Amino acid sequence: xxxxxxxxxxxxxxxxxxxxxxxxxxxxxxxxxxxxxxxxxxxxxxxxxxxxxxxxxxxxxxxxxxxxxxxxxxxxxxxxxxxxxxxxxxxxxxxxxxxxxxxxxxxxxxxxxxxxxxxxxxxxxxxxxxxxxxxxxxxxxxxxxxxxxxxxxxxxxxxxxxxxxxxxxxxxxxxxxxxxxxxxxxxxxxxxxxxxxxxxxxxxxxxxxxxxxxxxxxxxxxxxxxxxxxxxxxxxxxxxxxxxxxxxxxxxxxxxxxxxxxxxxxxxxxxxxxxxxxxxxxxxxxxxxxxxxxxxxxxxxxxxxxxxxxxxxxxxxxxxxxxxxxxxxxxxxxxxxxxxxxxxxxxxxxxxxxxxxxxxxxxxxxxxxxxxxxxxxxxxxxxxxxxxxxxxxxxxxxx
Length: 399
What we know:
By secondary structure, the chain is α+β, with helices and mostly antiparallel strands. The chain has helices at residues 28-31, 58-61, 200-203, 259-262, 339-348, 350-353, 357-368, 377-387, 393-398, and strands at residues 10-11, 16-21, 32-34, 45-48, 63-66, 71-83, 90-98, 106-108, 111-115, 131-138, 142-151, 154-157, 162-163, 173-180, 185-190, 193-199, 210-212, 227-229, 245-247, 269-271, 283-285, 297-299, 314-323, 328-336.
């Protein structure tokens, strides 16, 4: 059985656990607050392991799930102790199973960390957050891991997507881990495997180390045209007298041509092989060319890498999601400064949940989903018609 989330902040031998939630039993409802932001249109959260799970693992696989299609599902919890990214690393970790996905799922699966001064009952999409992290999926077009940091009120999305591979988007439970280091670096892991890492200052639109000098601009008399038309060149006399087309010299009037009925016969026109095209002056190097102008660069006064993704007083975690499909099960939420503990928790939770999950899904589908019907001759004929490229457009419309 799962252990209950501690009411107070847990301290490990190496660090601090600011928040841990395994949704072991109904006590989770005391820690999490559903938002009234969308009123009657808000989706409800259910406490479930979903339609399938490995044998004997229902308790471990139980989390909170989005239960309604085409709804906003919004919920948050206050952490046991405020987290920060200033003096120690920050690890954010959780698992999610998009059970109804079937590779066409559309919706968010990310978690947000919010600062103090947060009204949980009114929690919505406009609330300020420090970090947003997790999967963003919609069919085959959108498949990435979102990672957004707030900087002075602006939400900065990672400039290059953290892409998900085909198997990363399946219906199994996946574990998402974000590590923000104190030295301005980060790492994102999926199922304990690194998907992206690097410097925050290089992969987000934080103020860069240098900028173009705003006091400088290209001089109006700067010449950056490398080649020009030769001013000494002139079109040869009679150049335009050569027609582009000429009568075909090899054509002959047909024997059955009747000028009385068909009119005067004229040979067909063909491209003139001697035609040189429109005359263009030859190009020469521009004697006034100065090269490409380079904007002078100065040190950016706003460059402050020690402040990038540096937060204090992170007091809340929340899921603020729009999903087309219900059936996303969230579980094993962890916020800590202890990377070793996060790895240990991953092994004790997700590491066990994933074992046999694929077989459990296959068995459930076999027992609950209708088998594909065999096409009869009429259905096959209709399919052939739809695939026929010569079919008239109106026939397709009628079908």
